[in-house]
Design a protein that fits this description.
The structure is a single chain. The chain is α+β, with helices and mostly antiparallel strands. It folds into two domains: 2-14 and 328-492, Rubisco LSMT, substrate-binding domain (set domain protein methyltransferase, domain 2), CATH 3.90.1420.10; 50-310, set domain protein methyltransferase, domain 1. It is 40% helix and 13% strand. It contains 18 helices and 15 strands. The chain has helices at residues 62-68, 117-121, 124-132, 137-150, 158-167, 183-186, 193-210, 212-218, 220-225, 231-234, 237-248, 313-320, 345-354, 370-385, 389-397, 407-426, 432-439, 446-474, and strands at residues 2-4, 76-81, 91-96, 105-110, 115-116, 251-253, 263-265, 274-276, 283-286, 289-293, 305-307, 331-337, 360-366, 402-404, 491-492. The strands form six sheets. Strands 4-10-9 form a three-stranded antiparallel beta sheet, with no helix packed on it. It has a three-stranded antiparallel beta sheet with strand order 5-7-6. Strands 13-12-15 form a three-stranded antiparallel beta sheet. A hairpin with a 2-residue loop joins strand 9 and strand 10. Helix 13 (345-354) packs parallel to helix 15, helix 14 packs across helix 18 and helix 17 (432-439) runs antiparallel to helix 18. The radius of gyration is 26 Å and the shape is elongated. It starts with a strand and ends with a strand. Residues 1-45 and 47-56 have low confidence and may be disordered. Keywords: Methyltransferase, S-adenosyl-L-methionine, Transferase. Residues 340-462 form the Rubisco LSMT substrate-binding domain. It comes from Lithospermum erythrorhizon.
Length: 493
């Protein structure tokens, strides 16, 4: 029988909101310092335990400090709720100070109270040059706030930095990013591809740290202000990593602004604002300010919510320390590749490209659309199973996107898919029912809880994919038929 090769546009690689990049500029000076590493400075970190976040009383709360420095009258108030972790201070959050209706401006933060690369590097042209060369915006922002924190109360940003300390890189009622978890805590994610993403991100942060001195010497404003405090001598890697994660949890990606202003730290923004996947309100740049226009009505005292972008739960956990069980953007990735040892590899590569696919193709399995994802994978895998040269020529010469499929080939393709999904499910240390039993425990460790929520949702997606595959096997005309042998099967990862 002939089965259409479903055409689709090429899938564009997803660039995370908070992507990491390695600095590409060369070092300009030696790391030799005139001073030893500052190990005892209590301002080294941007995240802190209860006892380390004190001394803000003379400034009032963050909002009071902002009003003193140009924040106009607004319709929000700072409130407080207990932390999930008893060792950490209560969490502040932004709530409506009065009833709001959709379209109301909740607040408008003047640019003088917003931290951007333009401010950090002292020159918009330099900022754009460095970011164009794949310099991590997060590393620059973290480095700037670390230097500012070393000034203590002398820093203009002292009240804001203290608020970041209090939040400790946490989302609302959530936990620290797993980038700060111990190895034992990361084991909660065993079997999940998110664990590998975390380890890769941590390596990226390490590479950033190793290049910090380059940033410092090229950023004239920082170099002039701290001529003897070379970054890797002033701050240990652990301190930088903590600061990086704290910045990552609250950075805002502004639209329709210059490169030097697109990544911004906005007091009253995240993490004081909650993130929601089903919300459409965003912090937006206006003339001279960053404002929030709400997308729904709020009653006085209700926490405000903003959109976090189309991010899957794995990114929400890594970047902000929470997952959203109602996240319509959640997805898993399946990587497939044609066998490069196949004598017909080049012909198959051409056929795949003609239908919008690559020789190594990434398929996104979106929650609720698992069947569509499996059906999208099948034509690609069928192409990999073609072994007869005459059949391959028929594929290449056909007027439409047609790939001949025999019943035994279809059984082989579906069996490979079923084995793949079963293998991924077997890689987890718990079953869905065991996850649900864990989540029913009100005293479950907060990090274990958020990790269990994530892996349970991943397993649900995989189970749906497996169910679709088994249903397709059941629809074959003859279930007793043996799968066709294929010497050069495509790979699934």
């Amino acid at each position: 029988m002939e089965v259409p090769y479903i055409s689709s546009p090429p899938l564009l690689p997803h660039r995370p909101l908070l992507a990491l990049h390695t600095i590409s500029v060369s070092k300009m000076m030696s790391k030799t310092s005139l001073f030893p590493r500052c190990r005892n400075i209590n301002s080294d970190t941007l995240v802190a335990k209860k006892e380390a976040v004190e001394g803000l009383e003379e400034y009032g709360d963050l909002k009071t400090w902002m009003h003193k420095n140009g924040l106009p009258k607004c319709k929000v108030v700072l409130k407080e709720r207990p932390s999930l972790d008893a060792e950490l201070r209560d969490i502040h959050y932004v709530a409506a100070s009065q009833d709001l209706k959709a379209g109301d401006v909740a607040f408008s933060v003047p640019n003088s109270l917003v931290v951007t690369l333009e401010r950090v590097l002292g020159n918009e042209t330099v900022a754009e040059l460095l970011t164009t060369n794949k310099l991590s915006e997060l590393a620059c922002l973290a480095l700037y706030l670390m230097y500012e924190k070393k000034q203590g109360k002398k820093s203009f940003w002292y009240p804001y930095i203290k608020e970041l300390d209090r939040q400790r890189g946490r989302g609302q009622l959530a936990v620290e990013s797993p980038l700060l978890w111990s190895d034992a805590e990361l084991s909660y994610l065993s079997g999940s591809p998110t664990k590998d993403e975390i380890l890769e991100r941590a390596e990226g942060i390490k590479r950033e740290y190793n290049e910090l001195d380059t940033v410092w010497f090229m950023a004239g404003s920082l170099f002039q202000q701290y001529p003897f405090d070379i970054p890797t001598e002033a701050f240990s890697f652990e301190i930088f990593k903590q600061a990086f994660v704290a910045v990552q949890s609250c950075v805002v990606h502004l639209q329709k602004v210059s490169l030097a202003r697109r990544f911004a730290l906005v007091p009253l923004g995240p993490p004081l604002l909650s993130y929601g996947s089903n919300c459409k309100a965003m912090l937006t740049a206006t003339d001279g300010a960053v404002q929030l226009v709400v997308d729904r009505p709020y009653t006085s005292g209700e926490p405000l919510v903003v959109w976090c972008g189309p991010q899957p739960n794995s990114k929400l956990l890594i970047n902000y320390g929470f997952v959203d069980e109602d996240n319509s953007y959640d997805r898993l990735v399946v990587k497939a590749a044609l066998n490069t040892e196949d004598p017909q590899y080049q012909d198959k590569r051409m056929a795949a490209q003609r239908n919008g696919k690559l020789s190594s193709q990434t398929f996104h399995v979106n929650v609720g659309k698992e069947r569509e994802a499996v059906l999208d994978m099948l034509p690609y895998l069928r192409l990999g199973y073609v072994s007869d040269p005459s059949e391959m020529q028929s594929v290449l010469s056909s007027q439409g996107p047609i790939c001949p499929v025999s019943p035994c080939m279809e059984r082989a393709v579906l069996d490979q898919l079923a084995d793949y999904f079963n293998g991924r499910l077997a890689g987890y240390s718990t079953t869905i029912s065991e996850d649900e039993a864990l989540l029913s425990d009100p005293d479950l460790n907060p990090k274990r809880r958020v990790a269990t929520q994530l892996v349970r949702m991943e397993k649900k997606i995989l189970h749906e994919c497996l169910k679709t595959t088994l249903d397709l096997i059941d629809q074959l005309p003859d279930l007793s038929i043996s799968p066709c042998p294929a010497p050069y099967t495509p790979t699934l990862d």
